[in-house]
Design goal:
This protein is 31% helix and 22% strand. It has 456 residues and is of the alpha/beta class. A hairpin with a 4-residue loop joins strand 13 and strand 14 (259-265).
Length: 456
């Protein structure tokens, strides 16, 4: 963060009497240093107000609170109705000082992967800032904007949500030059009830766009091609199947290391592309990054070539080879759409041995939880999985359906049981997919499987 006067950062929120320079905004009192502003956020387990005085002791220039706090003098605090809204407002005040090209990314599935593809492309043209990990909420997105400075030429900002109105706040703060919407899926049904409401929530990203800005959408989605945008915005469709799309991928060929395809662009022509990722869903993610870059005026051939610089993050379809067994680590998050993509990738993977799926519960599905998990069992059968291992109460429905359709399947009571079966069953040449919602902590299965026998 470039040091900024508190009067500029806190515009519209309040003031600190001596107008100190703020060197960083922190939400963890342990990160407080001289010149920082500590924002007291009340979470489910921890209330930041309990640590406000500790932040001042560490040298914080001031604290932002939702109510008066004992031992905090009036000249050191600013009281706001909602600390999270204040974070977004401060980010807007800070972002307004700079003029990078900003791309906002949202969607039910693939936001983080799409953001990484966009960052790979824009990095070929200049210094690019991106959201770290999936820090896409009322805290994470402001923290991304606070990292801007005069040298930032491009910024790729991921925007997530739990309900209506949240993305609108984020996009009005970030003021993107263009937006990408990856798809309209079924995650967050627990909060929003219908996919129509999910579409409304995702389209809120358009609120922060200037007149004439491109909105890049998935032409193979069943909602986005028909979605109505503001009349002054430019809809750009990317797709594999939809022949009416502006940008399409054809001649898709995959091997164990990468996927190659041709980009067919109605406006700029044809270009070969290669990505170090598997699955047609990742081809779509790559297409969206190419499409938004070119519609912002960047060179098409350079953008297509830059897709090869994409790097996976966390446990998102990261391929690991362990004692001859190929493991597709994809346990960062899960919903019906990403599960389908992952199982299809497993089916198409050029394996010498057997295909094994290790699947855990999908969260936030509300009333469709049982039906959605049962459908995963059907899909496992269609994808000709050689062994299905499930864990979690909801995934029991997938196990039962798959088993009824003839899939060799075992439902495990513990993650340790999963590890034991994998160690006994797997042999060189097999391909193992490990996927679940992040809360299932399936990374512990990976850690257990990779341990040497002497460590186990």
């Amino acid at each position: 963060m470039r040091p900024v006067l508190s009067s500029l950062l806190l515009k519209g929120l309040g003031e600190l009497p001596e107008d100190p320079q703020i060197t960083q905004v922190v939400t963890d009192s342990r990160a407080a240093v001289p010149g920082s502003l500590f924002v007291c956020i009340k979470g489910e387990r921890v209330d930041g107000h309990d640590y406000a005085y500790r932040a001042l002791e560490a040298g914080a220039a001031g604290v932002l609170v939702e109510h008066e706090v004992e031992k905090i003098p009036a000249e050191k605090r600013v009281i706001v109705p909602d600390a999270l809204d204040a974070m977004i407002q401060m980010a807007a005040n800070y972002r307004a000082q700079f003029t990078p090209v900003v791309v906002g990314v949202t969607g039910s599935v693939g936001k983080t992967t799409t953001k990484e593809f966009c960052a790979a492309v824009f990095s070929a043209f200049g210094k690019t800032l991106k959201t770290e990990g999936n820090q896409n909420n009322e805290i994470g997105m402001p923290n991304t904007l606070f990292r801007m400075d005069e040298s930032t030429e491009y910024a790729v900002v991921e925007m997530g949500m739990q309900g209506l109105g949240e993305i609108e706040k984020l996009t009005l703060s970030a003021r993107p030059s263009a937006a990408v919407i990856s798809c309209i899926g079924t995650s967050h049904l627990e909060h929003l009830g219908t996919r129509e409401n999910i579409l409304r929530a995702k389209l809120e990203i358009c609120t922060g766009l200037a007149q004439g800005a491109p909105v890049v959408v998935n032409g193979d989605d069943d909602y986005l091609p028909k979605a109505k945008l503001r009349g002054d915005l430019k809809k750009v469709m990317f797709a594999i199947d939809n022949k009416e799309a502006d940008v399409r991928a054809t001649e898709i060929k995959a091997d164990a290391e990468c996927t190659k395809f041709m980009i067919q662009d109605r406006e700029y022509g044809s270009f070969p592309a290669q990505i170090p990722a598997l699955g047609v869903h990742n081809v779509r993610n790559a297409l969206s990054a190419y499409a938004v870059a070119t519609r912002l005026g960047l060179d098409a051939a350079t953008a297509a070539a830059a897709l090869s610089q994409y790097q996976t993050t966390g446990h998102r379809q990261h391929v690991v080879r362990h004692k001859g067994v190929i493991v597709i680590e994809d346990c960062y998050n899960a919903n019906p759409d990403s599960m389908r993509a992952a199982l299809t990738t497993l089916q198409d993977y050029p394996a010498e041995g057997r295909r094994i799926a290790v699947l855990g519960d999908m969260f936030e599905l509300g009333s469709i939880t049982e039906k959605a998990h049962e459908e995963i069992g059907r899909l496992a059968a269609r994808c000709r999985i050689d062994l299905l291992l499930t864990a979690g109460e909801a995934m029991r429905a997938a196990h039962q359906k798959a088993q009824s359709l003839g899939v060799p399947a075992t439902h495990c009571k513990t993650k340790e049981d999963v590890v034991s079966i994998l160690r006994f069953y797997c042999r060189p040449g097999d391909v193992v997919l490990v996927k679940a919602s992040h809360g299932m902590a399936f990374e512990t299965i990976l850690q257990g499987f990779y341990k040497e026998e002497s460590e186990a």
